[in-house]
């Protein structure tokens, strides 16, 4: 590996080792940095000032070391922020969506960090601000808006906010006539809610002491929140609970789910005192979601072996399992992702041959047609609608070269109308770029899709630097969509690549199943295969590839660093889930029980313990020549707790060979998503990109 200079006299932090032994299934492990896990971590989520002094001092020392080693990039970081900000339309707004007498939208003001929510009369008239994020965020170091939902009678606004990054949202009710919040404030919720049909109250989820949404309550406006009615309580700590509503505002859905099983209860929105009715009892591996269709429900499900999902119908009067009737049968290799029902049409978003498509079905005669697109790789999204009795579908389209476009599509005439194209104020010509889709051979013969974008004219002789991004978990597919930020690398001669590895659903549900639990290693070997294929095809060379991933993608970064450190010139791991074994053994952590279907339960099963122990990045750090590594963390992160990257970085420094640095930057005012403002987030991205440019020796390129 080519040496990259990190010239500084700064000394890396050397935290104390305090070995703690743990024995499971007769196997003893020693964790010398277990002390970094604050005993009062739940209180720290609510009040970061309660963090123990020695832990805070260590995190601050790591931040100082990172700043010292990256000091020579400060001017570059400012340049990158200016570039990325220059590509953002500062007064960006969404296309208003009509709901009866009003059309609702959100946007930003010039210079604003947070969204503003507003509406206009559908017949035309003056814009009315409903919620001003910048105003609400004044005086707060962190602020994030949760759910925002107007009442059916348009008189009130239900909105949530988090001011610590801990994802403990407070929800409030705003009187839209006065612009003032009522006394109906509920703390430590999931962030949003669902109005009843009469606009008199709302359903919401409340988080328990382990930060899990386990209860659904109904709050009547004007009542004491302490007396809210408990509507549903989930007894299994492995299941998360959510509440949502139908677009016709006739039904409220209460869902309980983990990563492979779901269960739904329904109740009429006009009778909030009704007891929830179970649709189909939970059955391990059975998933289903309801979409209202008048006197029937459309149900997207994997029942009866429909691995890539099918659509069934059931009468709204009794949607129980015995009444399900196939409408759109299962087709292996065609993964149905989402459905949306209208009075005359059923729309489905599906993926086939690694690409998304939108299919429109006439509810009267069963005929279908597909909306066609031409590019080699692209991204689609259904935009949603407040209205049910309409022929208009709104969707978004983008590719790695094409900025996002929003269309209204007339499902009857089959014509589309372009409503908006994402503006890039500093300029962007799609013809200056090339987007490609490669297929990288994995060790077992599978072909891994890799999406690329690069500037026309760069030499494809192995000399180009490359940022290779990956995730590969929970069945989440990484879209080949437009990113203005990555142009700061692409315009400097980089190849920007996304590896669509197993663990996602890019090639159907089987692609996900082949990258989880005992097959998790496929995720890692797929990513390494993508890197090697890019080199074999002349797009880059190994010492010029920087790998990037976050959260579960950060686990990917830790694993490939252990398995093939020579394949990468640098690694960026954002809020990385790297202490997998310890976390999955700690059932008090927010996500642990719900995560067992994804990774396995090492408490209950020796086989799962062995599987996780074999790849867990923290447990497999060795005396290897690791490339330069930058890890990013958030102090109030409830998903990947701050101590995971902190422990990993400390152990890497202890055990690794070579002299490449390992850096840790912890945001002491934020959680999993990093900085909350749209421009403050650019500073974190600028640090990442400066690191990428530094380790590839391209800081002076443009």
TrEMBL record:
The keyword Oxidoreductase does not apply. Signal peptide: none annotated. InterPro entries: AB_hydrolase_fold (IPR029058), Pept_S9_AS (IPR002471), Pept_S9A_N (IPR023302), Peptidase_S9_cat (IPR001375), Peptidase_S9A (IPR002470), Serine_Peptidase_S9A (IPR051543). One of its GO terms (biological process) is proteolysis. It holds the Pfam family Peptidase_S9. Keywords: Hydrolase, Protease, Serine protease. Residues 1-25 are annotated as: Disordered. The keyword Cytoplasm does not apply. PROSITE patterns: PRO_ENDOPEP_SER. Residues 481-697 form the Peptidase S9 prolyl oligopeptidase catalytic domain. Residues 14-421 form the Peptidase S9A N-terminal domain. GO terms for molecular function: serine-type endopeptidase activity. Belongs to the peptidase S9A family. PANTHER family: PROLYL ENDOPEPTIDASE-LIKE, PROTEASE FAMILY S9A OLIGOPEPTIDASE. This is Oligopeptidase B Serine peptidase. MEROPS family S09A. It comes from Nitratireductor aquibiodomus.
């Amino acid at each position: 590996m080519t040496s990259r200079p990190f010239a500084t006299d700064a000394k890396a932090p050397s935290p104390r080792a305090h070995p703690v032994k743990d024995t499971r299934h007769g196997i003893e492990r020693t964790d010398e940095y277990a002390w970094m896990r604050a005993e009062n971590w739940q209180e720290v989520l609510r009040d970061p000032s309660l963090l123990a002094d020695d832990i805070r001092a260590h995190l601050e020392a790591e931040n100082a070391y990172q700043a010292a080693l990256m000091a020579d990039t400060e001017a570059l970081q400012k340049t990158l922020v200016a570039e990325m900000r220059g590509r953002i339309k500062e007064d960006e707004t969404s296309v208003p969506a009509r709901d009866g007498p009003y059309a609702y939208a959100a946007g930003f003001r010039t210079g604003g960090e947070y969204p503003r929510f507003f509406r206009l009369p559908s017949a035309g008239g003056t814009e009315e601000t409903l919620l001003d994020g910048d105003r609400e965020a004044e005086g707060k170091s962190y602020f994030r808006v949760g759910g925002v939902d107007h009442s059916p009678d348009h008189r009130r606004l239900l909105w949530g906010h988090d001011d610590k990054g801990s994802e403990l949202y407070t929800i409030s009710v705003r009187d839209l006539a006065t612009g003032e919040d009522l006394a109906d404030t509920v703390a430590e919720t999931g962030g949003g809610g669902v109005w009843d049909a009469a606009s008199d109250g709302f359903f919401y989820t409340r988080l328990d002491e382990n930060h899990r949404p386990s209860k659904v309550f109904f709050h009547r406006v004007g009542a004491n929140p302490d007396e809210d009615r408990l509507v549903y309580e989930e007894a299994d700590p492995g299941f998360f609970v959510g509440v949502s509503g139908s677009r016709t505002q006739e039904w409220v859905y209460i869902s309980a789910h983990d990563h492979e099983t779901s269960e739904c209860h329904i109740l009429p929105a006009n009778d909030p005192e009704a007891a929830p009715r179970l649709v189909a009892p939970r059955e391990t591996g059975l998933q289903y979601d309801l979409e209202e269709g008048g006197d029937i429900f459309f149900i997207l499900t994997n029942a009866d072996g429909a691995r890539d999902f099918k659509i069934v119908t059931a009468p709204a009067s009794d949607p129980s399992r015995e009444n399900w009737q196939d409408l759109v049968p299962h087709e292996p290799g065609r993964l149905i992702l989402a459905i949306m029902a209208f009075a005359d049409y059923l729309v489905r978003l599906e993926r086939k041959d690694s690409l998304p498509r939108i299919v429109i079905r006439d509810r009267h005669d069963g005929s279908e047609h597909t909306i066609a697109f031409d590019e080699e790789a692209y991204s689609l999204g259904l935009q949603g609608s407040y209205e049910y009795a309409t022929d208009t579908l709104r969707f978004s389209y983008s590719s790695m070269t094409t900025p996002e476009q929003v269309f209204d599509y007339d499902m009857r005439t089959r014509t589309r109308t372009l409503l908006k194209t994402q503006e890039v104020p500093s300029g962007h010509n799609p013809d200056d770029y090339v987007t490609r889709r490669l297929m990288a051979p994995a060790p077992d013969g599978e072909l891994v899709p890799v999406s690329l974008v690069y500037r026309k004219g760069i030499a494809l002789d192995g000399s180009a630097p490359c940022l290779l991004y990956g995730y590969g978990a929970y069945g989440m597919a990484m879209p080949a969509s437009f990113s203005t930020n990555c142009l700061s690398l692409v315009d400097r001669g980089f190849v920007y690549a996304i590896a669509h590895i197993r663990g996602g659903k890019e090639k159907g549900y089987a692609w996900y199943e082949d990258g989880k639990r005992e097959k998790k290693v496929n995720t890692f070997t797929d990513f390494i295969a993508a890197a090697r294929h890019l080199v074999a095809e002349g797009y880059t060379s190994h010492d010029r590839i920087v790998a990037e991933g976050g959260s579960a993608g950060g686990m990917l970064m830790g694993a490939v660093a252990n398995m093939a450190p020579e394949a990468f010139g640098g690694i960026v791991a954002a809020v990385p889930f790297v202490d997998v074994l310890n976390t999955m053994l700690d059932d008090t952590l927010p996500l642990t029980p719900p995560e067992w279907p994804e990774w396995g339960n090492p408490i209950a099963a020796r086989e799962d313990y062995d599987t996780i122990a074999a790849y867990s990045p923290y447990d497999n750090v060795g005396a290897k020549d690791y490339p330069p590594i930058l890890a990013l963390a958030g102090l109030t992160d409830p998903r990947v707790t701050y101590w995971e990257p902190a422990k990993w970085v400390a152990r890497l420094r202890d055990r690794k060979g070579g002299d490449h640095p390992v850096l840790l930057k912890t945001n002491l005012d934020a959680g999993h998503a990093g900085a909350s403002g749209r421009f403050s987030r650019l500073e974190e991205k600028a640090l990442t990109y400066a690191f990428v440019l530094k380790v590839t020796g391209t800081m002076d390129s443009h």
